[in-house]
Amino acid sequence: MNMQEQTKKIIVATGNEGKMKEIREILRGENILFSSLRDEGLLDVEIVEDGKSFEENAVIKARKISDLTGQMVLADDSGLEVDYLDKAPGIYSARYLGEDTPYSIKNQHIIDLLDGVADEKRTARFVCVIACAFPDGRTITCRGTIEGRIGYEEKGTNGFGYDPIFYVPEFGCTTSELSPEEKNKVSHRGKALVAMYQELRREKVL
Ligand code: IMP
Questions:
Q1: Which atom of ligand 1 is nearest to the CA of 57?
Q2: Cα 98 to chain center, whole Å?
Q3: What are the DSSP calls for the chain, one per residue?
Q4: How far does residue 78's CA lie from ligand 1's centre (Å)?
Q5: Would you say 197 and 27 are in contact if contact means Cβ atoms under 8 Å apart?
């Protein structure tokens, strides 16, 4: 990194401090100051995520905050796709069975729906789409995925959400059993964010 380079501020359209922590960790050392909606005093802005895809929802969030601030804004949308359930919960992952329902219940529900389903039909993936909205009205998106299978019981105490039932055959464990550093290296969010970073470098925005 060139020490002469100025620190660049990027607003991330999320109020989720867990996501902010992951993003800062993944792009650590890149001279970028990531500022959350909380940092910007914009936590109360109402954003209606009524898109039909991860891409549409990520763009809705990034565009809304870019229009409000006149700055370049990143936003992500992510979720779990279970092939046997026709890719549910998908874009509804956070709202699945109710926003405030504990993940122990959501996870057990998915395990129950897959009762008796053989290993090779338990395929699933985490998807993350990062959108970047520019003040001139342009948007770009990058997608990252990690492939796995739905487990038979919750395992692990790291991570969040559906991590305890997301078994990755390659690692022989769930993403909830990986350390945060290990997960960031292989996760959907890590891959999408690195792809976006490379795209912004190519465009000489960073
Ligand atoms: P979003 O905040 O609208 O992107 O919703 C993402 C939802 O997808 C989360 O609330 C989780 O339910 C699920 N999800 C996304 N990424 C992960 C992950 O890395 N581990 C576990 N669950 C995840």
A1: 3
A2: 19
A3: --TTSPPEEEEE----HHHHHHHHHHTTTSSEEEE-TTTTT-TT-------SSHHHHHHHHHHHHHHHHSS-EEEEEEEEEEGGGTTEEGGGTTTTT-TTS-HHHHHHHHHHHTTT--GGG-EEEEEEEEEEE-TTS-EEEEEEEEEEEE-SS---SSS-TTGGGEEETTTTEETTSS-HHHHHHHSHHHHHHHHHHHHHHHTT--
A4: 5
A5: yes
Would you say 133 and 75 are in contact if contact means Cβ atoms under 8 Å apart? yes
Please indicate whether residue 67 is annotated as part of the active site.
no
Q: What is the pLDDT of residue 16?
A: 86
Find the 107 Cα to ligand 1 centroid distance in Å: 13
pLDDT score, position 30: 87
How do residues 75-124 score in pLDDT, each as one tens digit? 999 999 999 999 999 999 999 999 999 999 999 999 999 999 999 999 99
* pLDDT at residue 56 in the model: 98
